[in-house]
Amino acid sequence: MTRNSDSVLSRRKFLIASGATGLAGLAGCTENNTGGEGGSSDGGSGGDSEGTDSSGDGSNELSGTIDIAGSSTVFPLATAMGERFQSEHSEVNINLQSTGSGGGFANYFCTGQTDFNNASRPIKGEEETQCEDNDVTPVELKVATDALTVIVNNDNDFIGEGLTVEQLQTIFSAESTPTTWSDVNSEWPDEEIEIYGPTDASGTYDYFIEAIIGEEGPGHRQDYSATEQDRTIIQGVEGSEYAIGYLGFAYYSENTDAVQAVAIENDAGEFVEPSLDTALSGEYNPLSRPLFTYPARESLAEDHVAEFARYWMENSTSREIVADEVGYVPLGEDEQQEMLDTLNAAIEEAN
């Protein structure tokens, strides 16, 4: 639908603010799912078992509940898609939680309590095993591309053109753990580094280790302010001149007046700022990353769950929703078709 710039801005601010609460009740149509345990625990489906309303009037209106947990990064996109879907299907209730990718897999999705798990990194082998042990079959669907963003305080004027991967390794790895900025670069202030970032339940945390520290490296330092709420990261960096943090691009894009993004040196030796364009072109590396949602194949046997998954994939190329409203890079048409093929095959198997 067409929206003016003020309404789009208000909507995007709502999405980001909702992400900070950890639980969304969508637009008057969603029933709050406190703790994410309102769904059924059998066969990986948290959805209402009725699926459609066979009222005899021939309308076959979709109805039921869809439970979703997982990534805080994917949360704003899931909220946007869910609200639109519910505006067309008022008898469908979507319960959406922001728990972190790993927290969603371990505590909700792979135990059979939710129908979808959003993730900002691919599912891990041990998570697949947990799902299998509980008769849950995850279906991997890419939904967008993110530019993981490193942020500093607006008064930070010493970093200059940006940070190298090596400097990020020095700041964030468990091996070096510098206490002051001058420990990283002798020309920088002899002031304590204040670090903010996601918890180890977050896919953003996992991806940062993979892209910057290395999976075989010393790991992420633990003496930092860890939170599952991206808004808290923004507030922490905004409030301290010598702070640094990282989070998904959508959250930064709503707070460009509060903090500044840091350009990162890419594999061509160029310092590149995060943006939708640089993420799409591949210039913003190594911090561009795919975002996913994982429906449970068993849940896809329910019409309302399958149709919501189709709706999301059919709108995954929408610049209005994915880029303009939320702040991520939409799928290309070829990627979209690949995801639709994967989804439709899973729906057929579920039935």
From TrEMBL:
Keywords: Signal, Transport. Residues 35-49 have a biased composition (Gly residues). It comes from the Archaea. Residues 25-65 are annotated as: Disordered. Residues 57-313 form the PBP domain. The keyword Lipid biosynthesis does not apply. This is Putative phosphate ABC transporter periplasmic substrate-binding protein. It comes from Haloferax lucentense (strain DSM 14919 / JCM 9276 / NCIMB 13854 / Aa 2.2).
